[in-house]
Specification:
CATH superfamily of the largest domain in chain B: P-loop containing nucleotide triphosphate hydrolases
Largest sheet of chain A: 5 strands, mixed
Shape of chain B: globular
Radius of gyration of chain B: 22 Å
Shape of chain A: elongated
Distance between the termini of chain A: 49 Å
Strand content of chain A: 5-15%
Strand order of the largest sheet of chain B: 6-7-8-3-9-10
Radius of gyration of chain A: 27 Å
Bound molecules: adenosine-5'-triphosphate, magnesium ion
Largest interface: A-B, 16 and 25 residues
Structural class of chain B: alpha/beta
Number of domains of chain B: 3
Strand order of the largest sheet of chain A: 2-1-3-4-5
Oligomer: heterodimer
Order of helices and strands of chain A: HHEHEHEHEHHHEHHHHHHHHH
Largest sheet of chain B: 6 strands, mixed
Helix content of chain B: 25-40%
CATH architecture of the largest domain in chain B: 3-Layer(aba) Sandwich
Number of helices of chain A: 17
């Protein structure tokens, strides 16, 4: 045992020496935990507040306004939109701009005053049950809290039953089945994980093994090399997509797109997303100097894709700065597209922004990867 | 078609503050085999990479295959075969797959025939289904040569193509290169082996990034002005050791049972040898070998560096 100490020391010192040479790994060891902790520590809030809501009020009385202010006072929701019609409200919910839509009927005040059973309608986007639960928590306290002062003013007895009730609609996922939300989300995570990591090795491997020298001495141009290297993985991505969707349907009964327009929208999103991930992997591989570095960089990208995209936590429940970060990540847009197409019957028109964002991502990242590709070894 | 396949002047390349190739001007006639010699780290690989467009020169101009070598890199690449010093084909693909890839990337027609021809020509046909990574060193070199010549280039740049290859395989390798050159191919080949240098039509010797000798082996030997004596007899190797320190002796080294003692000044050399001209030693003047000359060239350059 005493004899092996110097040898242990030899190996130990060698490891430290190599670690020190590998600058990026070195940086990752420090930067990774600090950055991830700062970002996710502050961004992730298990009790999301200020979720966006819309109120469609057919009743302009002060009583109705009191209900709205009571809703905001809970802190769980912010009323961001005041649509004028059912269609407008419906579109806000379908496109994911609000998580909660409140409709106050025209006879609300009259019925409250008369002591008849007044009702308001609360529609929550339950495609993400976790987020919907947050919004509905705010609604549930309304009947007892909302008109407390007004009722005293109107001389109503305090003890009677609540003056109105809330009818709750959980749309898109009425039974709040979490697989409906998680499984489509997993498609995005699985695709990112495999595609980014696989292509992140693409150029790095050639450089590490020395085959880059042969490749560069051929007439192949950087664009040709990139397209040639990435195309097989488009096929890989499509196969994975089919497998995940078939299992989602077969094992978890996740709804599928119901119209051709829905499938078309989904297909556009999937192709853009796959190409975006591949470009990102390729960009990583032009930067990383070893395959290990490529792995680390891919991991560095995966964590925000999980936490800030709306996969693990409701996107609308994140603080604004984290949502800005999230908007940069393709998974965020992809999740909206997949959930939209599968659960919310969205078509191309509903996904315009997300498809555009994915398109821009592809252009920017593929451009950067090409700009970094070299035809020479220097 | 007696133009120059390579005609570049004033080639320079630095990595950071290391000036690795200095003012190299090199001309190679079509169909010639030029050996490229020089000690480790003298800039052979770098020069070859500059010539085939894998590195961008800091300065320099001229033509390769009649094309402006700085502007027409793509066109030059198409007609040049480059065999790297380190094996750089795909080890996880078979020989056949590697060659098929090279054939495709060069846009060759009748790929299948050409790949098979090449496999036959280099004696690789029986191993075509083996993974390249599983080949021994010598066979890897053959495969690399096959890949570099598959597209029938007009210029072949070989970087130490026979390092670690057995004598028989080396001879076959050189026969192959001579056959190709007879067909009009121009070859620039770096090597550390003197016998290979002698198989070249002419030689370039590069040292610390400078091309300091150029011409046929004979002319380089003649121009060196070197005088060499061959000493034989029991215990001569110990004598060589002492001779090496003597004034007027540039090098004294053992060749088996004999020693080569060289110097540039005949009188000084004779004077140094005088104490050893006795039994049991026998001395005779011989033409210097290339190696003697190169060792002298290395010494000379070092002296110049100290004085400058
Ligand atoms: N990419 C690079 N970055 C920095 N320095 C380099 C690079 N490539 C080569 N060098 C340096 O340039 C010098 C010449 O190297 P080169 O590989 O051309 O020598 P060589 O003559 O081929 O040597 P050898 O006979 O060992 O193959 C060496 O000092 C080497 O360290
Ligand atoms: Mg070299």
């Amino acid at each position: 045992m005493r004899g092996s100490l110097p040898r242990i020391l030899a190996v130990l010192l060698k490891e430290f020496t190599q670690l020190r040479r590998d600058r990026i790994t070195y940086a990752m060891i420090l930067v990774m935990p600090v950055m991830q902790l700062l970002i996710f520590g502050y961004a992730i809030n298990m009790d999301p507040r200020h979720l966006p809501a819309a109120v469609l009020s057919h009743d302009t009385s002060t009583l109705a306004n009191s209900v709205v202010s009571a809703l905001e006072r809970t802190g769980y929701v912010d009323v961001r939109y005041l649509p004028r019609s059912d269609e407008e409200l419906d579109q806000l919910i379908r496109r994911g701009q609000v998580l909660l839509g409140i409709t106050i009927p025209p006879d609300f005040t009259r019925r409250v005053l008369k002591g008849e059973r007044a009702q308001i309608l609360a529609e929550a986007d339950a495609s993400d049950p976790q987020a919907a639960a947050g919004a509905l928590a705010a609604v549930s306290v309304l009947p007892t809290e909302a008109l407390r002062n007004e009722r005293v003013g109107l001389g109503m007895p305090r003890s009677t039953a609540p003056p109105f009730e809330v009818v709750v609609h959980r749309r898109y996922n009425p039974e709040s089945r979490s697989p409906f939300n998680i499984v489509p989300g997993l498609l995005g995570i699985i695709l990112s994980m495999t595609l980014v990591m696989m292509t992140a090795m693409a150029v790095t491997r050639e450089r590490e093994r020395g085959t880059m020298e042969t490749l560069l001495s051929t007439p192949a141009t950087p664009v040709e090399i990139m397209v040639g290297k990435l195309t097989p993985y488009v096929v890989v991505g499509l196969i994975q997509t089919v497998v995940v969707l078939v299992m989602a349907r077969g094992l978890f009964s996740v709804p599928m797109a119901r119209t051709a327009a829905g499938w078309l929208a989904l297909a556009c999103g999937i192709v853009l997303f796959i190409v975006g991930n591949l470009s990102l992997g390729y960009l990583i591989s032009t930067v990383a100097r070893s395959q290990l570095q490529a792995m680390q960089m891919s991991m560095f990208y995966m964590l925000p894709s999980i936490f800030l995209s709306g996969f693990a936590f409701p996107f609308l429940g994140l603080p604004p700065w984290a949502r800005v970060l999230g908007e940069i990540i393709p998974v965020t847009h992809f999740l909206r597209i997949v959930r939209g197409a599968l659960l919310k019957e969205q078509v191309l028109a509903d996904m315009g922004n997300d498809l555009l964002a994915l398109g821009l991502f592809v252009l920017a990242v593929a451009g950067a990867a090409l700009a970094r590709s070299r035809t020479t070894l220097d | 078609m007696n133009e120059r396949a390579i005609d570049v002047r004033g080639l320079n390349k630095s990595f950071g503050d290391r000036h690795v190739v200095r003012d190299v001007s090199i001309a190679v006639d079509t169909g010639r085999i030029t050996g490229f010699l020089g000690p480790n780290g003298s800039g052979k690989t770098t020069t070859l990479r500059l010539l085939c467009g894998l590195l961008t020169p800091d300065s320099g101009e001229g033509t390769v295959l009649g094309l402006d070598f700085r502007a027409r890199g793509d066109a030059i690449k198409r007609q040049t075969g480059y065999m790297t010093q380190k094996f750089s084909l795909y080890e996880d693909m078979t020989l056949e797959e590697n060659l098929a890839f090279v054939a495709r990337v060069h846009g060759l027609e009748q790929r299948r025939e050409r790949v098979e021809d090449t496999l036959h020509r280099l004696g690789l046909f029986d191993r075509r289904r083996q993974l390249a990574g599983a080949l021994s060193g010598g066979w890897k070199q053959r495969l690399a040569l096959a890949a570099a010549t598959l597209h029938e280039p007009r210029l072949l740049l070989l970087d130490e193509p026979t390092a670690g290859v057995d004598p028989k395989a080396r001879r076959e390798f050189w026969d192959e290169i001579h056959t190709l050159a007879a067909g009009g191919l121009t070859v620039l080949v770096s090597t550390h082996y003197m016998d290979e240098a002698e198989r070249c039509h002419d030689i370039g010797y590069i040292l610390y990034g400078r091309l300091i000798a150029r011409g046929t082996a004979d002319s380089i030997i003649r121009d060196s002005g070197l005088v060499t004596f061959l000493g034989e007899g029991p215990g001569i190797d110990r004598a060589a050791h002492l001779l090496a320190q003597a004034d007027g002796v540039l090098s004294a080294s053992a060749f088996g049972a004999a020693v080569h003692v060289s110097g540039v000044k005949r009188e000084a050399l004779e004077a140094a040898l005088a104490p050893w001209r006795k039994e049991p030693f026998r001395w005779s003047e011989v033409p210097p070998s290339l190696e003697d000359v190169f060792i002298q060239l290395m010494g000379r350059e070092r002296d110049e560096r100290y004085t400058s």
